[in-house]
Design a protein that fits this description.
Shape of chain A: globular
CATH class of the largest domain in chain B: Alpha Beta
CATH topology of the largest domain in chain B: TIM Barrel
CATH architecture of the largest domain in chain A: 3-Layer(aba) Sandwich
Largest sheet of chain A: 5 strands, parallel
Distance between the termini of chain B: 17 Å
Strand content of chain B: 15-25%
Shape of chain B: globular
Radius of gyration of chain A: 19 Å
Strand content of chain A: 5-15%
Number of domains of chain B: 2
Order of helices and strands of chain A: HEHEHEHEHEHEEHEHHEHH
CATH topology of the largest domain in chain A: Rossmann fold
Largest sheet of chain B: 9 strands, mixed
Helix content of chain A: 25-40%
Structural class of chain A: alpha/beta
Oligomer: heterodimer
Number of strands of chain A: 9
Chain lengths: 313, 430
Amino acid sequence: MKRHLLSIADLDRTDVEALLELADSFSEVTQRDIPKVPALRGKVVVSLFYEDSTRTRISFETAAKRLSTDVMNFSVGGASVSKGESLLDTVRTIEAMGIDAIVVRHQSAGAPHRIAQWVDASVINAGDGCHEHPTQGLLDVYTLRRYRGNDLSGLRVAIVGDIKYSRVARSDVLALGLLGADVRLVAPPTLLPESLEGWPVTTTTDLDAALDDVDVVMLLRIQRERQRDAVFPSLREYTSRYGLTVERAARLKPDVLVMHPGPMNRGIEIAAEVADSPASVITEQVSNGVAVRMAVLYHLLAGGVGTAGGDQR
Amino acid sequence: MNDIVIRGGRVVDVTGERTADVRIAGCEIVEVGPDLPVDGARELDAGGCVVAPGLVDIQVHLREPGREEAETIETGSRAAALGGFTAVQAMPNTVPPLDDAAVVRSVLDRARTALCGVVVAGCITKGRAGRELAPMGELYDVGVRVFTDDGDCVGDSRVMQRAFEYASALEGAVIAQHAEDPALVHGGHMHEGEWSSRLGIPGRPAEAESIVVARDLDLVRRTGCRYHVLHISTAGAVGLVRAAKAEGLAVTAEATPQHFTLTDAECASFDPVFKMNPPLRGTADVDAVRSGLVDGTIDAIASDHAPHAPETKEQPFEEAPPGMLGLETSLAVALTELVHPGVCSLTHALGALSWRPAAIARIDGHGGPVEAGARAHLCVIDPTCVWEVDPDRLASRSKNTPWTGRKLTGRVRHTMFDGEPVVVDGEAQR
């Protein structure tokens, strides 16, 4: 395991499994009356979000607080960034205050990788441009293991929607691939990446065919702005061809799992009835996010405590 | 000033190669031949070296005026001299842009004390905005021969047609295009393909280049104006230029060392030092650019030397400006990647670095041949010297080289600019 969590692409199967096992033990903590352990007392975690994100930010903060770290919020809107400070100066300033980890969300792919080259603190990628969202990838496979057991090999997973611009899709594909799942990507051609060279997936543009025998359906949030960029003609057409409608959901296997990283566009990529149906594990994804992020923070910051296996640094 | 004798080298120019000393008096070459007498001249050792016409780089961003924190004419010309160049063409994307004869004159004035010759490319359109023609005639009258909107492709076909038509009345003028269709590359930061897909970085497709080159060639066919493709980077565009040359159209092309050496896989580091426009491409495109250089489809090697101050380049990939340094590494990369592995001959590579670009941009007195009566623009190259690129030791004011830590084979020993030894034993003399 590395000093940072920048992308799932940096991890191997053993790394992922170790983090998921660690998350299991923290999941138990989150069930307690007082869901807090002193594991990282005295450590300082800064959350540095250049993009609006309520859920990921709160999830990381909750995870950090349950491990007894001190959490600092660097709010981009009101601070030096709006005065023109560069990312480099911002992170050097933050680091000079004596911190252990930076959780960063940034609109540009690779920004966390750049930060990791500039500072000694651990860097955790909370989403970078259209590149990766590694903790989302981890919490998605964690959620699947909770429902389907630890062996995900051969599990048929359809990821549907805005694959091309989705950091969630990239992390999910890699995490599912490491654990042996059978991933198919479903999207209109304009929302598939130009090249899938090296991706452990199959692709189709036909959602109905893709759903035939599928065990898991992961929907991705559709960005309404894409319509203006001539990516699809209308939201109505998108829903009719690529939305998980009630009719489509009715044809799925009885034990299918429906997932969505949130925030959902109800009635567009997923029907409200489907999001609220027993097949939906969307709320569990959110809960599991806290345990998984606790595992990541602990693994990176606990320094040599070998629960997660392997060398810490 | 004493005469100078460049002693013991192998002279290579457009006429061939021979072992000969070169005697320089004032700013002229006065004698070329074996075992020239000393006669009180200063001797510069060229043992084991190639003595070539000074190199010529027709795509260089000197950043003056407007971006002097990144480079100046002085620092850029020093970098050029250290790279063996005795003439460079400054690109017009300065602030203000070179779309006005007075601005061009002021750049040429400031370049009088430079360590190499500086010619200036002028804008095709006012403000490089792609709408109204710049005063091409006035620019021509102050010496501009190459017109280009530099990093901004002229996307409007009607404007481009007018530019070709208008320039065809200016003897020797050439329209040079950064060929990337603006709509197709809008918002893109790297070559669109396997790596952009994997990295989630918005792409700039190869077709953006071939579409523009195909359109421009149609307009060349109609207007007869000379046309030059800046930093060609795709198999598609190389194929189009090859066919156009076979047809007899007045078209030339250049390629950068990075485009015949590096691929888009470098972007996986997210280090913006590998970001440029057109972007680093895939292996098939790199191979096509090499083939184009070898068979003469691509006439010249140009560096697209694009200095950026550290604070502008030390950013996330998508936010950093495109461009990389090149003047001090161009020759060495060409020798290391093309000549030493036998991809092309030394003479062919030197042609691409010297006399062919000099002819494209009509830079008089540069590009050889090395003979009595010619201006003394020379570079003396130690082709086997192995060195490692260290950005802190480059003369450029900026450090954004993609070659950091690379071992290159071949280095400039001496550079003579107009008879002045501006570089001796690898050190700039001023």
